[in-house]
Amino acid sequence: MMNDVKQSTAGNQVSSWRGPWTLLKKELLRFWRVSFQTVAAPVITALLYLLIFSHVLDKHVQVYDGVAYTEFLIPGLIMMSVLQNAFANSSSSLIQSKVMGNIVFVLLTPLTHLQFFLAFLIAAIIRGLVVGLCIYLVAMWFVDLTIASPWMLVAFGLLGSALLGTFGIIAGIWADRFDQMAAFQNFIIMPLSFLSGVFYSIHSLPPFWQKVSHLNPFFYMIDGFRYGFFGKGDVSPALSLLIVAASFLVLALITLKMLKSGYKLRS
């Protein structure tokens, strides 16, 4: 009798996660079926940045001793692409589902708000990391990048993509139209990305703008990720990791509250 109860409990636990696993597969297939647009296009864009900036500045700019500008540039381009694509994956999926009306089929399932969140979040992380890995492999044709701290790369890659994937869910829930979503991308994500030290060290800026840069969470993600390659950064990697982790926790709690209440999803 006890064995039957245990087997039944185990079976219920397995079946309770079949739904989020199915939603996760659906989200993964959604971006993989158009991989030329969702993976190849960001890689080509990053490659163009690399070719142009390295050609113009490689012999004229050196940020760290013993590190060529092209080497300095690559980690920033990788992380910028990871962040932008993690955001794009979760936000575009939600806004498309809302506009087309098929979000109702997900809401009718017995998924909890936590399972819903995890499925979209993991898919966003995977897309971001796939794009980043592809850019790294392409960049290896230009320079031989050494890795000083693999754990820092993993930590900032996962936390950064998770943070932007979570922010993408918030944006997708809030936005009702594609132009509202475009505003997030054009007026928040892009400016914060380009002003985060991808192409320069903040120490090259005047003191006022250095202080302003420290208010940008993207700066800590990119600087911490770059530290994983060179063992050098503009700020302490421990501080960067703390800020990124705290930011993710805050956004995750906000997202879970929005999902639990059904804000702009069930109304």
UniProtKB/TrEMBL annotation:
<comment type="similarity">
    <text>Belongs to the ABC-2 integral membrane protein family.</text>
</comment>
<feature type="transmembrane region" description="Helical">
    <location>
        <begin position="151"/>
        <end position="175"/>
    </location>
</feature>
<dbReference type="GO" id="GO:0140359">
    <property type="term" value="F:ABC-type transporter activity"/>
</dbReference>
<dbReference type="Pfam" id="PF01061">
    <property type="entry name" value="ABC2_membrane"/>
</dbReference>
<dbReference type="InterPro" id="IPR000412">
    <property type="entry name" value="ABC_2_transport"/>
</dbReference>
<dbReference type="InterPro" id="IPR047817">
    <property type="entry name" value="ABC2_TM_bact-type"/>
</dbReference>
<feature type="transmembrane region" description="Helical">
    <location>
        <begin position="238"/>
        <end position="259"/>
    </location>
</feature>
<feature type="transmembrane region" description="Helical">
    <location>
        <begin position="187"/>
        <end position="209"/>
    </location>
</feature>
<keyword id="KW-0813">Transport</keyword>
<dbReference type="InterPro" id="IPR013525">
    <property type="entry name" value="ABC2_TM"/>
</dbReference>
<feature type="transmembrane region" description="Helical">
    <location>
        <begin position="31"/>
        <end position="52"/>
    </location>
</feature>
<dbReference type="InterPro" id="IPR052522">
    <property type="entry name" value="ABC-2_transport_permease"/>
</dbReference>
<keyword id="KW-0378">Hydrolase</keyword>
<keyword id="KW-1133">Transmembrane helix</keyword>
<dbReference type="GO" id="GO:0043190">
    <property type="term" value="C:ATP-binding cassette (ABC) transporter complex"/>
</dbReference>
<keyword id="KW-0812">Transmembrane</keyword>
<feature type="transmembrane region" description="Helical">
    <location>
        <begin position="72"/>
        <end position="95"/>
    </location>
</feature>
<feature type="domain" description="ABC transmembrane type-2">
    <location>
        <begin position="33"/>
        <end position="262"/>
    </location>
</feature>
<keyword id="KW-1003">Cell membrane</keyword>
<protein>
    <recommendedName>
        <fullName>Transport permease protein</fullName>
    </recommendedName>
</protein>
<dbReference type="GO" id="GO:0016787">
    <property type="term" value="F:hydrolase activity"/>
</dbReference>
<keyword id="KW-0472">Membrane</keyword>
